[in-house]
Design goal:
alpha+beta, DUF1659, DUF1659 domain-containing protein
Length: about 70
């Protein structure tokens, strides 16, 4: 059985370390930006993430792209 995928949506996630807990482990906060075109290139998404991270009061430690796809039996 062959399966293909069809893009449904994409979002940009900026992950920032907001501090540490009592054990000294890092605490993170996510900022999600929905409505990203699934066809957007990774280079363009990264450039947008860098621009948005400059507007945040907390330094961004990671940038992630979250893609949602539908699996279709071919």
């Amino acid at each position: 059985m062959a399966v293909s995928k069809s893009p449904i949506s994409a979002s940009l996630r900026l992950i920032a370390q907001t501090g540490t807990n009592a054990k000294g482990e890092p605490l993170f906060q996510n900022r999600d930006f929905k409505g990203l075109k699934p066809s957007a290139t990774d280079d363009n998404v990264y450039a947008a993430a860098e621009a948005l991270s400059g507007l945040m009061s907390i330094p961004v430690s990671r940038i992630a792209r979250v893609d949602t796809n539908q699996l279709i039996e071919a």
